[in-house]
Amino acid sequence: MIIIRPAITADAAAIATVRADSWRAVYATLIPAAALAEATGPASVSAYTENLITRSCAGILVAEPQQPGPSGHQVIGFASFGPERDAGRLGPPPGDSPSGAVAAELYAIYVQPAYWGGQAGWQLLTEIVSRAAAQRYASLSLWVLETNRHARRFYERAGFAVTGESQVLDDLGGVTEIRYWRLLAG
Fold this sequence. Notes:
7-stranded mixed sheet, 7 strands, alpha+beta, Aminopeptidase, globular
């Protein structure tokens, strides 16, 4: 059983570690090695931790096992969302989104590799969808690497569809990410 709860500042280092460990595992064959090493190295983990502390971990949920380990509760995954960052740049989402409705974006969702295949990722995503709907967002979008087949299947099972939009991430070696989107129940 997994517990999902709002992150607190004390979780910042664990969240940054989950992100780096997950990136190293999932992106090892998808992002050029030098870019991946820079994005997951000690300086990046430290900067990510400091950014989370500065933001007081606002808008982030964490997953932890119901039964604490020997060192107490441990963060095994996290997810964050908020207002869509690219709303002004992107065209309207597909489908029947209400006119003038505010869109949300899933900024990140990562789980420690040892917990892949469990329910932590699914529970995090379910809780994000529920909270976004409760906050009266009309839709939820996200960006995923085009070559990340596993993540794409995960989002498609959750009702997300490809929008046809893409962007190249020069800072990660020129990889392409694509946008997914879904309506939220009102």
